[in-house]
Amino acid sequence: MGVYTDLREKLISDYATLSPQMQKAARHILDHPNDVALRSMRALARAANVPPSTVTRLMAAIGVDTWQQFRDSYQNRLLDLPASYAHRARALQNSEADIHRDAHLLQSIAQAEIANIGQAFAPEMCERMKDACEHIARARQVFVVGRGAAYPAAYQFAYAYRLFNENGVLVDGHAGAFGDQLRGIGPRDVLIAVGARPYIRDTVRAVAFARKQHCPVIAVCDSDVAPIAVDAVAKLVVSDSSPSFFQSFTTSVSVMQALVALLVARGGQKVLQRIAVAEEQLAAFDTYHEEAAPTRNSRS
């Protein structure tokens, strides 16, 4: 995947210098790499909502001679992926509408979620997740922010992380304390930011503030060029596509769960002891409802 990786990095590094139209094309290519391999240039331009000439100018701007040269690298990438990914990409494009509307919609949602999660756990993303865990493990404090529909993913990580580490801070703005919860953030900390288009202002502002304080940012988002991903030390790019009217954050939750699992797996005996203490505390507060054991005379 060498040529593909080089071209992708070129699109990301040059993104800020491109015209608005070329940025639209570049973002579509970054967010939908399979489109480059499977569609014509004109079809891709239509999907990106730009004229074909914009794609041609974009190729020239990043130093690519022809569209076919660019497309070849993306086709090679697709061939290098596990067969199930390539098959799934073609199957989704060739699927026909079911006459039973509700059944077709539910099936489409299931297929989209499975495809999104499959992409999120591809080899490159797994390497990014492991790299993100290195930054988290070294951090003095771990700040987590995700507003709006991204909040469940941020909360999922923060709650589970607090079961085995006391340095987690969920930046949720409770009682108007959003800015207060970021007080003291600095180079020895890390901020995990979760978001997707349309981006919530609070999340973007939190990331901007963290950057000013030289705090490393881990972005869990929908694009390498998302505003919360700029200059991030780790970019965990996930798809939020869904047949529903609303975007999906299922994959974001899965990635956050995976980060927690990696951290626990690497944590050794110390983490196990902390989890045991957390469970004792939960038991002391009688946190969980327990069903009564069945009696001998109870009916099954």
Automatic annotation (TrEMBL):
The record, for InterPro entries, names: Homeodomain-like_sf, HTH_RpiR, RpiR-like, RpiR-like_SIS, SIS_dom, SIS_dom_sf, WH-like_DNA-bd_sf
Q: What is this protein called?
A: Transcriptional regulator
Organism (species): Thalassospira xianhensis MCCC 1A02616
Residue intervals of the SIS domain: 132-274
- Enumerate the CDD domains for this protein: SIS_RpiR (cd05013)
* PROSITE patterns noted in UniProt: HTH_RPIR, SIS
Query: HTH rpiR-type domain: from which residue to which, for each copy?
Result: 5-81
Which keywords does the record carry? DNA-binding, Transcription, Transcription regulation
Tell me where on the tree of life, at the top rank, the source sits: Bacteria
Q: Name one GO biological process term.
A: carbohydrate derivative metabolic process
SUPFAM superfamilies per record: Homeodomain-like, SIS domain
Gene Ontology terms for molecular function? carbohydrate derivative binding; DNA binding; DNA-binding transcription factor activity
